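The instructor's notes for this session suggest beginning with a concrete chain rather than abstract definitions. Hand out the sequence below and ask the class to guess, before any prediction is shown, which regions might be ordered.
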Amino acid sequence: MATAPYGVRLLVGAATLAVEETIRLPKTILMYPMTLASTAAHVVMRFQQNVAELVIKGDATLEQIFPPKDEQPEWATFDEDLPDDEDDASAPDVERRTEGRFALYTSPDGAAGSHDSPRSAGKPATQTASAPAIVEELDYEALTLAQLRARLQSLDVDELEALLAYEEATKGRAPFQTLLANRITRATVK
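After discussion, reveal the predicted structure:
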């Protein structure tokens, strides 16, 4: 087979490409809006990146020329500025956690799940000696309000009254007293 001259091959190649592109035209026309949108989004994002890089370089240059001053006002105090006196800082938090809605999740001695706290160490031994048997049986001193609520179903009225009297004589926590009194009322109505 004889080879055609270079110009003829070039023209045949261009005509073939035109025919192929004409055949693919319906598919590519559908893709043009998406292609244009993605190209435009790319250009916009690249422009924003370039602007951000310029701003960062400007900030760095200005910091070298004008070093920043200490921005903390003298009247502001932060936790890391306070002295590390753990005894004074933890006592109010322990007291607050045993009141109100937090009484549901903290044990009566003030620490969540802890039986050996400074508050329980200072209790006189006579308080636990005069406790009813149900107190030791349930380990009442270590129960949270939610734990006590779960165990109330298995107690009879006499045990509930003993727990209520013990609570009123020792801690006097309103959520515990209310829970016990309500359970006594429901148990006596049955």
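Then share the key points. Residues 110-129 have pLDDT under 50 and may be disordered. The CA atoms of residues 43 and 150 lie 63 Å apart.
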